[in-house]
Write a structure and sequence with these properties.
single chain; alpha/beta; 8-stranded parallel β-barrel; 12 helices; binds beta-D-mannopyranose
C-alpha cells in the first residue's frame, strides 16, 4: 500500500435564448430533474450553469486537493501494446498496479463507429463511465477532419474561415459539433448524473500541422472558432458538464503561451502539450515553462496542466524520474501542475507509456511510488 499522499442575469438569459435560435442543429432534451434542481450559478467556470460535480472537479483541480500531480494516459483502458478492448486491462496498471488518475480520449472521426485510432465510440462511453466510477478524471480532444476539404485533421488547407457563422460550411460544421454534443450528453453515471469532462478542442493551435493551426487561419479566425464552439456546446446545446482546456504545444514563454488566446471568459484550464523533454538537458526549460503557466493560470483563477507529454517509445530508461519528475519538481509552482498525460500505447514502435517488459518499467514504478505523483487509487473524491 502506498501512503496517500457571468453572473446569471436577465441579459444572459436573453443571450442564451438567442443562441438557441442561432444554433438550430443542436437537439436539446427536456431538462432532467437534476438540472431543474441545479443550485445557484458559479462564478469560477466558463459555464456559470455548470453542474455541481463539474464545479467541484474544477475547484479540486485548481486548489490541488489531490496534493500532487496526477498521472494521465491516452486511451489507457481501450487498448495497449499487444491488446485491444479487454475489460479492466491497462498497460499502466499492468506495470505499477494502479490505473492512471486521468484518462485521455479523442473524438476524431465522430459519426463513424470507431474513432481515428480504432476505439469504438460506444465502448469509449463505457470506459469513460468506468473511469469516472472508480474516481478518475476524463479529458477529451478532437482530431476532427478538415471540414472544408474533407481531409483529416492534418490537412492544413484553409478551413476555419469557411465554417464561421455566415460562411458556406457553417451549418455542416455545426452538424459535426452536434454529433460531439450528443456523445457528451450520453456520458452519465448509473444514477443519471452527467459525468464532468475536460474538453480540449483545437489543441496545439500554435503549430502548423492542423487545419486550426497558425499557418491555416488568422488569430482572429482561431479565436472566433474557439468562441463559437464554446457557445454552441454551452448555450446552444445546454451542456453543463464541460471544463474547457486550451493546449498550445512546446511554448517557452508567457508571450508565446498567450498568442491566439481566446479569452478568460472561454478558457478554464491552461494546458500545455510538450514533446521537447527529450533528455535531462531539457528539464530546466520545461520546469521554467511549468512555472510560467501555473503563475498565469493562478493569477486568472484557472488550472494548469500538462495535457500531453512524452517521447515516442520512451527510449530513455530513466525518463520518468530523471526527466519528467525532475521538471515537475522544479519549484513550488511547477509542483502545482494538476496533471500530466502521456500519449497513447498503440504498438511497440508507437507508445508513450511503459508496458510489461519495457525498459522504463523499473523507473516508472519509482515515479509511481514518488510522493508527488497521484494515480487513481490515491485520489480523494474529486467530484464533491
Ligand atoms: C498522433 C499519433 C497518431 C494518432 C493521433 C491522434 O500523435 O499518435 O497515430 O492518430 O495522435 O490520436
Amino acid at each position: 500500500m502506498r501512503t496517500v499522499k457571468l453572473r446569471f442575469s436577465a441579459a444572459v438569459c436573453a443571450a442564451m435564448a438567442g443562441m438557441l435560435v442561432a444554433f438550430p442543429s443542436c437537439s436539446r432534451k427536456k431538462p432532467t430533474s437534476g438540472e431543474e434542481n441545479r443550485p445557484s450559478p458559479n462564478t469560477v467556470l466558463v459555464d456559470s450553469l455548470a453542474t455541481p460535480e463539474t464545479v467541484a472537479l474544477f475547484r479540486n483541480l485548481r486548489d490541488g486537493s489531490a496534493r500532487g500531480v496526477m498521472f494521465g494516459h491516452q486511451d489507457d483502458t481501450a487498448y495497449g501494446v499487444g491488446w485491444k478492448a479487454e475489460p479492466g486491462r491497462s498497460d499502466v496498471k499492468a506495470v505499477c498496479g494502479d490505473y492512471p488518475a486521468v484518462y485521455g480520449w479523442d473524438l476524431g472521426d465522430i459519426g463513424n463507429p470507431e474513432n481515428l485510432d480504432g476505439v469504438n465510440f460506444e465502448l469509449m462511453k463505457n470506459l469513460i463511465g468506468e473511469a469516472h466510477g472508480r474516481g478518475g478524471i476524463n479529458t477529451i480532444s478532437m482530431h476532427l477532419d478538415n471540414p472544408v476539404s474533407g481531409g483529416n485533421a492534418w490537412d492544413n488547407s484553409a478551413a476555419v474561415g469557411g465554417i464561421l457563422p455566415g460562411k458556406p460550411h457553417h451549418a455542416e460544421y455545426l452538424h459535426t459539433l452536434s454529433l460531439i454534443a450528443a456523445f457528451l450528453r450520453d456520458l452519465k453515471t448509473p444514477a443519471g448524473t452527467s459525468i464532468p469532462v475536460i474538453l480540449r478542442p483545437y489543441h496545439e493551435h500554435n503549430q502548423t500541422w492542423p487545419w486550426w493551426g497558425r499557418s491555416a487561419c488568422t488569430a482572429d479566425e482561431y479565436i472566433a472558432l474557439w468562441r463559437m464552439t464554446v457557445e454552441y456546446f454551452r448555450d446552444g446545446c445546454g451542456l453543463h458538464h464541460l471544463i474547457y482546456a486550451i493546449s498550445p504545444q512546446d511554448v517557452g514563454s508567457e508571450r508565446e503561451y498567450l498568442e491566439r488566446y481566446p479569452g478568460d471568459d472561454v478558457v478554464d484550464v491552461f494546458g500545455l502539450d510538450y514533446y521537447r523533454l527529450t533528455g535531462a538537458s531539457a528539464v530546466p526549460q520545461l520546469g521554467r515553462t511549468l512555472q510560467i503557466i501555473r503563475t498565469l493560470a493562478e493569477n486568472r483563477g484557472k488550472v494548469s496542466a500538462v495535457t500531453e507529454i512524452g517521447v515516442e517509445n520512451v527510449g530513455i530508461a530513466g525518463w520518468w524520474t530523471g526527466c519528467l519528475l525532475k521538471a515537475l519538481n522544479t519549484s513550488e509552482q511547477s509542483k502545482k501542475t494538476a496533471w500530466t498525460l502521456a500519449w497513447r500505447n498503440a504498438s511497440t514502435t508507437h507508445h508513450w507509456a511503459p508496458y510489461p517488459g519495457h525498459a522504463s518499467v523499473p523507473d516508472f514504478v519509482k515515479f509511481y511510488r514518488d510522493s508527488l505523483t497521484i494515480f487513481e487509487g490515491d485520489l480523494p473524491d474529486m467530484y464533491r
